[in-house]
Inverse folding.
């Protein structure tokens, strides 16, 4: 919700994300803009902003439930770079969404799964 104006002393609110652009596997209510912000922060921090051309995230129901990130890259990334990317993305998602972090800590939500395509 966002306060957009006031009527007398009463705030007028707007629903920013009412159902669209959100997903929740275990109660984390992860928004599209949170996922995008986490990925942008991740690739920038790791110096991969030129290597990652496109990505999409999808929920995976399973044990444990998790998010899969399908990424199109300009070059093949080493296993070490992929591990670093997955770990940093996991931390950034937790920074963006405290419920994601809580679900990861309780192991109700698994770590992100990365799939690369050149």
């Amino acid at each position: 919700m966002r306060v957009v104006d006031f009527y007398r002393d009463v705030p007028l609110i707007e629903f920013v994300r009412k159902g669209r652009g959100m997903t929740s596997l275990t109660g984390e209510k992860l928004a599209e803009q949170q996922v995008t912000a986490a990925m942008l922060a991740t690739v920038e921090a790791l110096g991969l902003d030129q290597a990652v051309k496109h990505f999409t995230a999808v929920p995976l129901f399973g044990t444990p439930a998790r998010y899969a990130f399908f990424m199109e890259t300009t070059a093949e990334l080493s296993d070490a770079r992929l591990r670093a990317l997955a770990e940093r993305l996991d931390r950034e998602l937790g920074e963006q969404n405290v419920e994601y972090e809580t679900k990861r800590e309780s192991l109700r939500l698994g770590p992100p799964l990365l799939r690369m395509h050149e």
